[in-house]
Amino acid sequence: MSQEGRKLFLLDAMALIYRAYYALNKNPRITSKGLNTSAILGFANALYDVIRNEKPTHIGVAFDTHAPTVRHEDFSAYKANREAMPEDISTAIPYIMQLIRGFNIPILAVDGYEADDVIGTLAKQAENKGFTVYMMTPDKDFGQLVSDNILQYKPGKPGEDPVIMGVKEVCEKFGVKRPDQVIDMLGLWGDASDNIPGIPGVGEVTARNLLKDFDNVENLIENAEKIDKAGLREKVKTFGQQALMSKQLATIILDVPLTFEEDALKLTPPDINKLQTLFEEIEFRTFAKRVFTDLEKGSPPAGKQAADLFAAAGEPLETIATLSNIDQVPHVYHLADTPEKRKVLVTHLGKSGMFCFDTETTGLDANNVELVGMSFATRPGEAWFVPVPDRYSEAVEIVKEFAGVFADETIGKTGQNMKYDISVLKWYEINVNGSLFDTMIAHYLIEPDMRHNMDFLARTYLNYEPVSIESLIGKKGKNQLSMRSVDPEKLKEYACEDADITLQLRIALEPQLAETDTRALFDEIEMPLVKVLAAMEAEGVKIDSGNLNQFSEQLEKEIAEVEKEIYLLAGEEFNIASPKQLGEIIFDKMQLSDNPKQTKTKQHSTSEDVLQKLINKHPIVQQILDYRSLTKLKSTYVDTLPLLVNPRTGRIHTSYNQAVASTGRLSSNNPNLQNIPIRTERGREIRKAFVPRNDKFVLLSADYSQIELRLIAHISGDEAMQEAFRHGIDIHTATAARIYNIDISEVTKEMRRNAKTVNFGIIYGISAFGLSERLNIPRREAAEIISQYFERFAGIKRYMDEIITFAREHGYVETIKKRRRYLRDINSGNAIVRGFAERNAINAPIQGSSADMIKIAMISIQREFERLKLKSRMIMQVHDELVFDVHQDEVETVKPVIERLMKSAIELSIPVEVEMSTGSNWLEAH
DNA sequence: TACCTCACG
DNA sequence: ACGTACGTGAGGTAG
């Protein structure tokens, strides 16, 4: 082999592992034993891709060691900002080492040095021996080492190509003349992730300009006088030494005591036995198949001869597990595009007992799309596609051929995110009846805090990769095609596959509902709720846009005034909406606080609680807070809501997501109607714009009073709290009397306010620190209050301890209606992570039971409204509140119905109170 | 796209 | 000795 052909790959293990973990862990991979293998798989794929595609002749993987490094000794803050390594990663590392050993690749590590230094040192030595070296890492710092023979190889994101950075690319990226200036850039600019400070206020652009004039940091400091801009000159003078130190920190060490030994790094065939044992343990079936099939085919790493590999493989390949894959199941997908074919299909569906269906549409907004087609499946491997024409009147006629089977109560329906299909079909005069099975929601109950989209479910449960929507209509953006323009044959394959897969998912998921004891919750609450939500969304809510537009103009003026005032007080103009710039102004320039809180990325925090504490330091603070609240109102609500009025209905239609919140709550988006302002005077103006459909109607709001505290009183059985609720005493006053050990009549406003904060804290899983922050009192006092609380409400304390114990034993907690939340970190060795899990253990049953309760109420109210054939409609849900658009003549009918059904949704051992009132807008209805 | 901030319960 | 209250969605900036 020629000298030129020698290719050395040096992998930066930890950087690659982190990257792999965060890229994959959105859909975490967890083995049957509960091991999170996201990091392992991500790294394995990256490693294997490189071996296969780049065919290195030599390879090594560099790790950091636990010993403190030279840099720590120099500068103690270095990397101090780093968060603790996620447990999923630390547990993965031993497996990743096994994997590397399985591939017969040496692991490189030297005490006292970082992986960067090891890579740098070896890269230089190898270069001298005539190798082309690829440093495989996403870390931009490596740019400093790049030369003609040393390149940086940045692995691509899933589905994207890797990027190779040579001298030219590095210089372009950093805007410098030579790669070695990268460290000067980093020295001036800083690097948040490594806690390298740089010069405050100097960003990428300034750093680049300085280097253009002064070449390097040392020279810059020496010639600081020559800087034109006065402000910058001062900064450089003040922080010059810090920049120099930053540069040193960013410099990769090239004289680590180790020698590049060619033979040790030579790529050799993998150790099949080791790999197979590992793959079995971590349940890597697909990856194993890929590796071993390649070996079998002799698509050899590094151009090795296939014979070599077979010799190394040792044992027969039949032992490798084969995968079930629906691609291998023969399937038949039909096109039902004539009246005759449709009639046959309808008859078939009518006799089926249950069918799975899916709709294809021109967009994502169920209340503003056109139907392009429908697909149906009745057994795995067979499906039908019914194209729906462009013209609405024709479309309705065709779709209505299916009205009978859709409406048939005796035919069950299966789908993925059925609320969407049901909503779309409403526009085509279709009513969907019969028992529903929504695979998305089934999975939501089985694994509440994972994702539930079909592609993920298909991969996880069927080991199948569905045809992507992108392959039909392209990536989203202005060039995306319409569903209408897709070739019918292709669309048929895609649509039928969706129905087919969904049906198979039902088969996979149904037993798991039973296993997790969530079948009743599914059948009696979640599935009936799907149609209730579809109805509410279709109803929508009327908005008074004129009112909002007027308000917008008023806000505009106020913002302009505040803005002017802020610039005046600051002595310069800047972007107030940029937390970065704002932080520099009030902390660096104006020095309003010497101890500003830092955000994750080393910036000064400018969040409200921080500013609130500085409010007496300078008048600019209040102005900033005003500016923030004004712009928030304007951009998020006042200017946005009128744009979301649906042209078909003249109303706003939110979408309630039933499979997002891991506690069981709903969430609302497009727009979010669950966070409309109410707490401030100006914010309340927005609620005035939510109005009844016409002057014959009023809005009625009904909300549960203190439902979460009532639930904890009920669940815990705490006598003291139950007694307070039974006597109808204001719960926060009662709490104050108890913790301050005084009579109810002696409770002051402040005591009540404190008690209220404590009560909230209880629901969230209180900590002394959290309480002291919120009450702005010393931690000792907060601790004292908490201990008083637990003494006086011993039942609550007992509940908290018991629920944590339960979680430790079972790995999950559950609500009154058996909704589960799994807490995988509850037995973690990491106190911080465990703390989160413990607070979730306390909160989830309460927040979740409250969600169970209002969901039940919504279903029964909807049923009762239908039974009574009322004109009034339920139109919104805000966690503990229901909003109705009520016909004037029905107000007195509807009130007792709502009250009774909300109160009786779940029977508690204490009274449940519901507050109701009506008005000509949402604010008045409160 | 990630982060920060802030609106609600 | 660690950092900290639970659950969401959305808009802006900056990379």
From TrEMBL:
PROSITE patterns: DNA_POLYMERASE_A. The keyword Nuclease applies. SUPFAM superfamilies: 5' to 3' exonuclease, C-terminal subdomain, DNA/RNA polymerases, PIN domain-like, Ribonuclease H-like. InterPro entries: 3'-5'_exonuclease_dom (IPR002562), 5-3_exonucl_a-hlix_arch_N (IPR020046), 5-3_exonuclease (IPR002421), 5-3_exonuclease_C_sf (IPR036279), DNA-dir_DNA_pol_A_CS (IPR019760), DNA-dir_DNA_pol_A_palm_dom (IPR001098), DNA/RNA_pol_sf (IPR043502), DNA_polI_H3TH (IPR020045). Pfam families: 5_3_exonuc, 5_3_exonuc_N, DNA_pol_A, DNA_pol_A_exo1. It is an enzyme of class 2 (transferase). Residues 6-268 form the 5'-3' exonuclease domain. Residues 545-572 form a coiled coil. The keyword DNA repair applies. Residues 333-514 form the 3'-5' exonuclease domain. Keywords: Coiled coil, DNA damage, DNA repair, DNA replication, DNA-binding, DNA-directed DNA polymerase, Exonuclease, Hydrolase, Nuclease, Nucleotidyltransferase, Transferase. Residues 683-890 form the DNA-directed DNA polymerase family A palm domain. SMART domains: 35EXOc (SM00474), 53EXOc (SM00475), HhH2 (SM00279), POLAc (SM00482). Gene3D superfamilies: 3.30.70.370, 5' to 3' exonuclease, C-terminal subdomain (1.10.150.20), 5'-nuclease (3.40.50.1010), Ribonuclease H-like superfamily/Ribonuclease H (3.30.420.10), Taq DNA Polymerase, Chain T, domain 4 (1.20.1060.10). In addition to polymerase activity, this DNA polymerase exhibits 3'-5' and 5'-3' exonuclease activity. Belongs to the DNA polymerase type-A family. PANTHER family: DNA POLYMERASE I, DNA POLYMERASE NU. This is DNA polymerase I. The lineage of its organism: Bacteria, Pseudomonadati, Bacteroidota, Bacteroidia, Bacteroidales. The gene is polA.
